[in-house]
Amino acid sequence: MVTSMSSDISLDTDLSGFRVSKLESPSCQFIFQGIACFWRVNVLLIDEDTSPGSMLLLKRSASDSHPGCLEGAGGQVEYGDKTLLEAAEREVNEETGITGLTFFGTAQTKSWDTPKADGIHHWVQFTYMATVYGQPDWKERIHLAEDEHQIGVVVSLISHRALGMEHGNVSVGTGCLAFEFNAEHLMEHLGYMCIHDGEPQEEDVREAERVYNESPKHRMESFQYCKGGIECERFLNSGNQIRNIVARLLNMGFQDIKKQGPAIIEFFTGTAGEHEEQFMRAHPSREAVSIFRPLREPAYWGNGLFKLYTSSHHQTEVQFRNTDNRDAHEIVVGTDEVLVIFGGLHIQLSPNSGTRIVWQGFSKRPMLDDIRSPLALPFMKV
């Protein structure tokens, strides 16, 4: 059984006090939450230079355990590793030849048990996201460990927005990873994900457009919106997977989740430069998810879609304001995709115009006073 866990162990925590044995051993165990475990690091490499938002995955060799499985670079934390940072850098270098990593976000920690001849082995894995800044040719310099990963098809450099959901799996290049293994890692670290959902039915698109054209609008400085209904819910859930994704992300039955909206929004040009520092939240509540899907045309910064500030859902407002090197993503959401964002993620409104998009919110509890937050977008009050 795999379980999500929280951890106070950072990348640069000294591991000497966590080792079970002081004798050097390749199968060194460490104490985690009072239990002797084998530790493992897993690094998802994000390309921010030549293909922003792309992620490197490796396909395990046919002769290795779990053949064909797609994974990040990583492996077991060894006796000589002074910190998790040292272990992560060592494993990435051994498996890909890449050095000079910049880590961001917080660790996603999972645990599981493996039956062995000498008893049950407890495992803990620390998954991190990292990037290689200032080395645009890093993908061409990858050298794979042939005994662990296959040559030729092993490197799947994929776009977040190319990740597709099918039968509970995320389609990535040459293989699949279970949603809970990969997508939840990505979602936890970035705070958002684009899910390939297929093109919506034309009748659902036309019905959403009809409702928008015939409904009274609430006009704001840079967008206007109207309340939607069942037609928007059908449009958002065209691929019949959004409910399952929302329920899994919020870790509760969909019937018990509180729903906000839906709403249909049209963005138009505001005053030049007005939104330069206008940060909002993707949802008024932290324990919540916002779903966006564009009507007719892809949505991007140039036609009104907001920027997304990765990992900012882990920060308080003060922490976010005091962060100097904020990681902003300008993404493209296709008409065959759904943008899923954790509540609490900071976004920046675009000064551009043109896109229409359908939104619905989902939260663990009623929003109550959250809706009065100055960081809440007005259409989330419908």
From TrEMBL:
Determine the domain of life of the protein's source: Eukaryota
Query: Which positions fall inside the Nudix hydrolase domain?
Result: 38-178
Would you tell me the protein name for this molecule? Nudix hydrolase domain-containing protein
Organism source for this protein?
Answer: Aspergillus tanneri
